[in-house]
């Protein structure tokens, strides 16, 4: 990160071994380009930092930011967390996230870019602008809330499923039959919640049903999970060019219907068992975006511990590491030879 735009725009270099950063005395302006100047600076500059040599600029710039209070954490604090939230992002996309975070902070008249701004920026980049002008009735909002709550409950209480959270799920190279079955149940959790708690079903589950249909056909016709079809794998094909007979097609269709029905029955049983929790989560969703801490508060810890850390665990671990580093610094202060970088008042 650089110092706030418009706040620092002059770097004075006396020679290769002496360099200073001058900081504006007034509010940020439109002047954003750094300049190398030799003349005496006017009174609009309030502070300067002796950074030693030009080569140490990158190292000292972070200390200057902390001394001024422009940033509240080291860059590594953000990089560890943003790496979890932005898998597969190119450099330009990450730069776009940083720019969008700064804009969000500026709209809120904030002087610092925080983790909340970065998360909002990622939502903006991935999901687009929030549609605040869409008219939706209270009944529709409640139906959507219960639908999403059903997904969350199913993901929380199924052993081989991943919790439905705002964070990116773990990427898997191979997936087991049990994982796919639980994933099917999670996808059907919204429809089951509508049936059990709302009392009627809606079109909101269309995308879920498309996902379930493809996933189940793949298990039966591609992955060789069905005993009736056998260990065969058929490529995607149109109705006009199926690489199997109509009798085998009927067997595949029947297997898919039975598998989906079995998954839905299990999901309905799960929603019935935890319907009070479904309702509680739904009511909270009507008020705010929920994070894992909110789910833990309502549902308790997940009954199943993953064999490896999840993406959210890695995201959360960064905070824990930061706290541990802070404690180490407090317990082991710097040596006397190490002098912290402090702003000095410009004398005119």
TrEMBL record:
Co-factor requirement: Zn(2+)
AAA ATPase AAA+ lid domain boundaries: 81-120
Domain of life: Eukaryota
Biased composition (Basic and acidic residues): 305-330
Domain Peptidase M41 stretches: 134-294
Pfam family, one: Peptidase_M41
UniProt keyword annotations, A-Z: ATP-binding, Hydrolase, Metal-binding, Metalloprotease, Nucleotide-binding, Protease, Zinc
UniProt GO MF annotations: metallopeptidase activity
UniProt region (Disordered), positions on chain: 305-348
Similarity comment: In the N-terminal section; belongs to the AAA ATPase family.
Protein name: ATP-dependent zinc metalloprotease FTSH 8, mitochondrial
């Amino acid at each position: 990160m650089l110092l706030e735009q418009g706040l620092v725009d002059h770097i004075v270099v006396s020679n290769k071994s002496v360099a200073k950063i001058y900081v504006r005395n007034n509010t940020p302006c439109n002047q954003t380009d750094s300049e190398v100047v030799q003349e005496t600076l006017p009174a609009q500059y309030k502070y300067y930092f002796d950074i030693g040599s030009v080569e140490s600029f990158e190292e000292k710039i972070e200390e200057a930011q902390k001394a001024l209070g422009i940033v509240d954490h080291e860059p590594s604090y953000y990089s560890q967390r943003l790496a979890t939230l932005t898998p597969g992002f190119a450099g330009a996309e990450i730069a776009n996230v940083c720019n969008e975070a700064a804009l969000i902070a500026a709209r809120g008249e904030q002087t610092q870019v925080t983790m909340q701004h970065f998360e909002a920026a990622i939502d903006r980049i991935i999901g687009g602008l929030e549609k605040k002008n869409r008219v939706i009735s209270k009944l529709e909002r409640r139906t959507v809330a219960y639908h999403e709550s059903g997904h969350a409950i199913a993901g929380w209480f199924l052993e081989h499923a991943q919790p439905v959270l705002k964070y990116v799920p773990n990427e898997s190279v191979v997936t087991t039959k049990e994982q796919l079955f639980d994933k099917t149940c999670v996808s059907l959790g919204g429809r089951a919640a509508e049936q059990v708690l709302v009392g009627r079903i809606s079109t909101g589950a269309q995308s879920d049903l498309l996902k379930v249909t493809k996933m189940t056909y793949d298990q039966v016709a591609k992955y060789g999970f069905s005993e009736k079809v056998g260990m065969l794998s058929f490529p995607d094909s149109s109705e006009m060019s199926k690489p199997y007979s109509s009798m085998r097609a009927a067997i595949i269709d029947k297997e898919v219907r039975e598998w989906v029905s079995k998954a839905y029955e299990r999901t309905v049983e799960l929603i019935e068992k935890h319907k009070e929790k479904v309702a509680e989560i739904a009511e909270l969703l009507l008020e705010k975006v929920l994070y894992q801490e909110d789910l833990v508060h309502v549902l308790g810890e997940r009954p199943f511990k993953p064999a490896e850390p999840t993406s959210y665990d890695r995201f959360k671990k960064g905070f824990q590491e930061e706290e541990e580093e802070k404690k180490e610094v407090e317990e082991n202060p710097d040596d006397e030879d190490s002098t912290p970088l402090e702003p000095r008042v410009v004398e005119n």
